[in-house]
């Protein structure tokens, strides 16, 4: 069910929507969703911070191991959120999800070590978003029947077919996160069936910052360094979203 403010007024389904909102707003599901998005997002920031090193054709051995990326991501996560990604008192199932994310983050860097260390090659296509997609795919291999994470974007902005939004993501991007009244940074949550199973879904908006615009900015259509046409985005525009599914 859709429970927008407009829906409340127009349809007068206040009670039904309140019930749906309560189940969609399960505090611990939202917290674990934010934890997963937070740690994988920190990994993306760490890869981004090393982009110059990764693209350096003159250095072979770069010492950018999976262990190091994870350690730096955990440090960044703690700085951003004031606690480590795995804490005492977490439920077993929640701990397993966060540990699966950390393992995926480590494995994907380690598996790309030879590429990252390749001498004589500048741009290697090992970008924050690519890293994130590979981590999300590995995470699904580990815990896909329990949870999924996806880095997606509105259809007109999507670059990689694998990141295309599904019907629910497309609707929430268009009619919630992408509307002028949506509070900046606020996630959208909903209790809804996914593949016939009850699930908690969450979409966390991601906006373009200045650093994104060399690829996603203007002029629209011009080829960027990665070979994709630029989207014509501007600073502060909705650039995409992290989509979390937790099966119940
Ligand atoms: C060096 C160029 C470059 C920069 C800088 C860059 N991106 Fe991207 N972005 C890409 C490429 C290439 C992909 C497709 C990656 C893949 O293969 O999955 C992508 C994918 C994405 C996606 C996933 C959906 C899709 O289109 O496949 C989002 C969301 C995104 N970028 C947002 C951002 C944001 C936000 C920033 C800044 C914080 C940023 N990007 C910076 C090149 C860039």
UniProtKB/TrEMBL annotation:
Residues 1-24 form the signal peptide. The keyword Signal applies. PROSITE patterns: PROKAR_LIPOPROTEIN (PS51257). Residues 96-245 form the Tll0287-like domain. Residues 219-248 are annotated as: Disordered. Keywords: Signal. This is DUF3365 domain-containing protein.
């Amino acid at each position: 069910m859709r429970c927008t403010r407009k829906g409340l007024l127009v349809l007068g389904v206040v009670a039904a929507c309140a019930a749906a909102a309560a189940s969609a707003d399960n505090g611990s599901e939202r917290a674990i969703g934010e934890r997963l998005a937070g740690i994988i997002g920190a990994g993306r920031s760490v890869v981004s911070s090393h982009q110059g090193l990764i693209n350096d054709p003159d250095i072979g051995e770069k010492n950018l191991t999976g262990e190091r990326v994870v350690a730096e991501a955990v440090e960044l996560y703690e700085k951003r959120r004031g606690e480590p990604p795995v804490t005492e008192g977490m439920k077993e199932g929640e701990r397993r999800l966060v540990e699966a994310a950390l393992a995926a983050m480590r494995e994907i860097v380690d598996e790309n070590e030879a590429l990252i260390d390749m001498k004589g090659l500048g741009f290697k296509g090992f970008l924050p978003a690519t890293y994130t997609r590979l981590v999300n795919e590995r995470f699904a291999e580990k815990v896909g029947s329990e949870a999924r994470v996806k880095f997606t974007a509105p259809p007109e902005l999507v670059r990689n077919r694998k990141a295309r939004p599904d019907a629910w993501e497309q609707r929430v991007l268009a009619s919630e996160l992408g509307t002028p009244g949506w509070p900046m940074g606020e996630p959208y949550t909903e209790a809804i069936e996914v593949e016939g199973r009850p699930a908690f879904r969450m979409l966390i908006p991601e906006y373009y910052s200045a650093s994104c615009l060399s690829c996603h900015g203007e002029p629209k259509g011009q080829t960027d360094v990665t070979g994709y046409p630029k989207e014509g985005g501007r600073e502060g525009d909705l650039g995409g979203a992290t989509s979390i599914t937790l099966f119940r």
